[in-house]
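ZP: hey, is the pyridoxal-5'-phosphate complex queued? I don't see it on the tracker
AM: it wasn't, my bad. submitting now with these inputs:
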Amino acid sequence: MLAKKFDPLEKKVWLSSPTMHGEELKYITEAYETNWMSTVGKNINEVERLCQEKTGCKYAVALSAGTAALHLAARLAGERLYGVHRADQGSLQGHKVFCSDMTFDATINPVAYENGEAVFIDTEYDTWNMDPVALEKAFEIYPDVKLIIVAHLYGTPGKIDEIRKIADAHGALIIEDAAESLGASYKGRQTGTFGDFNAISFNGNKIITGSSGGMFMTDSKEDAEKVRKWSTQSRENAPWYQHEEIGYNYRMSNVIAGVIRGQFPHLEEHIAQKKAIFERYRDGFKGLPVSMNPIDFENSEPNYWLSCMIISPEAMCKQVRGESEALYIPEKGKSCPTEILEAIASINAEGRPIWKPMHMQPIYRSHAFITREGNGRAKTNAYIAGGAIGVDGKPLDVGMDIFHRGLCLPSDNKMTPDEQDKIIEVIRACFE
Ligand SMILES: Cc1ncc(COP(=O)(O)O)c(C=O)c1O
C-alpha cells in the first residue's frame, strides 16, 4: 500500500514545548534588577509557596531538576530505612526498591545513585501505571523490601490508594514521582502529596516550565530542612565552610524560579488546553480501531499532559523494534506506531513512542521484573508479534504491550485546531 501524500504543516507542531505568557519576563527582570542572580531570592520563595498552596503539601524545596528531587528523596528514604548515608556506599546499599516500570528513566536512576537495586513492577491497563496486583506479588517474592517509587505517567494518576495500602501493610515508604502530573488529582487530592517524599519537574516539556527545575515536597519539616541543606553542599551553620555530610549543588536558580513563578497562574489554562487537545483526538479517531490513554479511573482528574493512543491488537500490522531502529510491513486496514510516527513526522509534527519500559532497557535488563504472574523476564523476540501475543503464543507483559501498540501524539498547547485536524487526517489515512 502506498502512503497517501499530505502537505506539511506551515510550522512544526511539537510534542509539548514551552508556552510563555509574559509574566515570566517580569520576574526574571526583577531578579536581574535587584541583583538576586543566585540560588537565593524572592522568586524561589514564592515558587515554593505556590507549590505548597497548589498541592496542599506542607513543605516544598525548590531544586535544579525533578531528578535532583528524586535523588534526594531516595537518599532520605535510604537514611530513614537503613541508617546513615556514606559517600562510598549511598544510602540504599544493595537494598531492593520496587519501581514503576513504564516511566522515564529519571524516576529510577536515583536508586542506582544511592547504590540500591531497582526491581521493576509491571504496568496495568486501567491507568498505564504501576499495577498494585503485581506490586503485591513482588512483596510475596521479596518480603523485605521497604521502598516503592511510583510515577504518574503522562499526567494520569496511578492507583495510589491501593499502592499506599500495600505499602502500609509492608511498612514500606513511597516516593511519588509527580514530575509529569502537576495539577492532576486522585479522589480530589493533588498528586505530589501521596508519597512520603514527592517530586515535580519543571523541565521544558512539562505542563508548566522554568526551562528546567524541580520541586521536592513532603509533610515533614525535618526532611524538608535536610533536603534544603543537602542541596546547598550540606553547609553547616559555622562562620567557614564546614561539612559533616555529603552535599550537592542542587538548589534552584532565582532566574529559573522567575520563569516558573510567571507560569504558575497559567497552570489551569494549560490543563484546559491539553484537555481540549485530548478530546479533539478522541473525537477525531471515532471509528478507528484505536483508543486513547486512560483518563477516568476512580475519580481521578489527569492534567492531560500528553495525549496518547493505542492500536487494537487486531489492527496492528507487523512491527519489529531493535535497539535503535524499527521496521514494519504496511498492511491494508492496519497500522502500527512506527508507521504513524513516520506519517506525522512527514507533515512536520512530532510524536514519540511510549516511554520504553525499564525492564526492556539495556542498562536495566538484568534486574528483576515482576508481573501479575510473578517473576517474569521479557522475551526478547516477543515484540515481533502483531499484538498482545508474543511469537511463542504467550501474552506480552503489559508494559511491553503498551510500548508495542501505543504512541504519544503531538500535544503542544499552541497547536491550532486546524493543525490538529490535519494530524488526525494523516493518522486516519494510516488505517486505510
Ligand atoms: C516521569 C518523570 N520523572 C522524572 C523526570 C525528571 O525531571 P527533570 O527533567 O526535571 O529532571 C521526568 C522528566 O524529565 C519525568 O517525566
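AM: back. Residues 23-266 form a domain with the Aspartate Aminotransferase; domain 2 fold (CATH 3.40.640.10).
ZP: great, adding it to the tracker
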